[in-house]
Design goal:
The chain has 244 residues and is mainly alpha-helical. The protein contains twelve helices and seven strands. A hairpin with an 8-residue loop joins β3 and β4.
Length: 244
């Protein structure tokens, strides 16, 4: 089972995860299984798990530990033996410091950690994913391919939006390019000219001017938050403790 926590409104997240009983809330005309119950005997993948409220993280921690939980509005416990795979797009340590991820919850879900490098550092993956997404986009009839100049441009692009940006671009090319072979010229309007990353002093100044707010700083630089975190880590820049 797959759940995107960032897409779950806080008021509905608990019901979506744990299920609910009939009459538990307005509109609950019948009971329903949640993701945990549906994943019994299998794997539950939660994307952007840091988007869950800390109270729900505590309940999820108990479900992981004891393999039981309670539906919203239910008087009794239910059981579910599931394996949890969780993903976040920011460093776990930073999420804990920002109180967006409970420390005990983070320790529990980080049994095996796979650090996936950003797409810009995985040139071979860029080629494979681009060809896959373009083929997937053309499943309804078109059959486009990328020539060597297009592939070279894709590999050298910074990809601030990571895999989602690449997939969207391939879907756009499938719709807008009227030839079977996609070239570098077709990509140029969407990739633009590569932007040089700021040096450590420039990055520190921008972070300071934006109050070390990662979202605002990334917007100023025109890059994704994950890319910004990578730059901060590379240059040893950390949010000062004096900044609230």
């Amino acid at each position: 089972m797959i759940g995107n926590c960032a897409a779950l409104p806080e008021t509905l997240a608990e019901a979506e995860l744990f299920g609910w009983e009939r009459g538990a809330f307005t509109g609950a005309h019948r009971g329903s299984e949640g993701l945990l119950e549906t994943a019994d005997g299998g794997t539950l993948f939660l994307d952007e798990v840091c988007s869950l409220a800390v109270g729900i993280q505590a309940k999820l921690l108990r479900a992981i530990e004891f393999k039981d939980f309670r539906r919203v509005g239910a008087p009794t416990q239910r059981s579910s033996d599931f394996r949890l795979v969780a993903a976040v797009s920011e460093p776990v340590e930073a999420l804990v410091r920002q109180s967006r991820l409970r420390a005990d919850f983070a320790y529990r879900i980080c049994g095996v950690v796979v650090n996936l490098p950003p797409l810009r550092d995985r040139g071979a993956d860029v080629k494979l994913l681009a060809e896959h997404f373009l083929s997937e986009a053309g499943a309804n009839g078109s059959s486009k391919s990328l020539d060597s100049t297009a592939l070279r441009s894709l590999v050298t692009h910074d990809w601030p939006g990571n895999v989602r940006e690449l997939k969207t671009l391939m879907e756009r090319l499938d719709l807008l390019v009227d030839r079977e072979l996609v070239t570098e010229a077709d990509l140029r309007p969407y990739l633009g000219s590569p932007v040089s990353p700021p040096n450590p002093a420039e990055l520190s100044d921008i972070l300071h001017s934006e109050g070390w707010d990662v979202t605002r700083t990334a917007r100023v630089l025109g890059i994704g938050r994950t890319t910004l975190y990578d730059l901060m880590h590379r240059h040893g820049l950390k949010r000062p403790e004096s900044v609230a």
